[in-house]
Amino acid sequence: MDSIIEIEEKAAAFIKQQGGVVTVRFSHRHGCCGGASRIAIAETSAPKETSTFECHQLQGTTLWIAPELIQQGLRLRVEGWWKLRRLFVDGAPLHAGHADAQQH
C-alpha cells in the first residue's frame, strides 16, 4: 500500500518547529490568459473547516490532507534558508480549472 504522503525529514522538522500541524490541500490559481488550475499546497496550520479533510499522525506531526491528494505519490519538502524557509508539495498533480468547473 502506498503511503498517504511522503514527508522528508527536513520538512518534518520544519513542521514541528512551526507547531507540529500541516494541511495539504488544493489552491485555485488563475493564469494570465484566463485559465485556472488547482495546485496542491502545504500550510503549517490546521484547516478552518476540518470536515472535508482526513487527519493522520505522521512522523510526529498532525497532517490534515484533502482526500483526493492521499496516495498520489506526493512529497512534502522544505526549501529556502533561515526565516525564508517554506514548505512545498513535490510531485503535485495539476487539474485544469475548466474540468473543475464541470464537476461542480
Structure, described:
This protein has 104 residues and is α/β, with parallel strands linked by helices. Helix content is 15%, strand content 40%. It contains two helices and eight strands. The strands form two sheets. A five-stranded mixed beta sheet has the order 4-5-2-3-8. The protein has a three-stranded mixed beta sheet with strand order 1-6-7. β4 and β5 form a beta hairpin. The longest helix has 9 residues. The chain is globular and about 40 Å long. The chain starts with 5 loop residues before the first strand and ends with a helix. The C terminus is likely disordered.
| Class by SSE composition | alpha/beta
Number of helices: 2
Largest sheet: 5 strands, mixed
Fraction in beta strands: 35-45%
Q: Give the radius of gyration.
A: 14 Å
Write down the secondary-structure element order. EHEEEEEEEH
**Largest sheet, spatial ordering of strands:** 4-5-2-3-8
Per the principal axes of the C-alpha atoms, what is the gross shape?
A: globular
Tell me the helix content.
10-25%
Number of strands: 8
- Low-confidence stretches are 98-104
Termini separation comes to: 30 Å
Taking all residues together, what is the mean pLDDT?
86
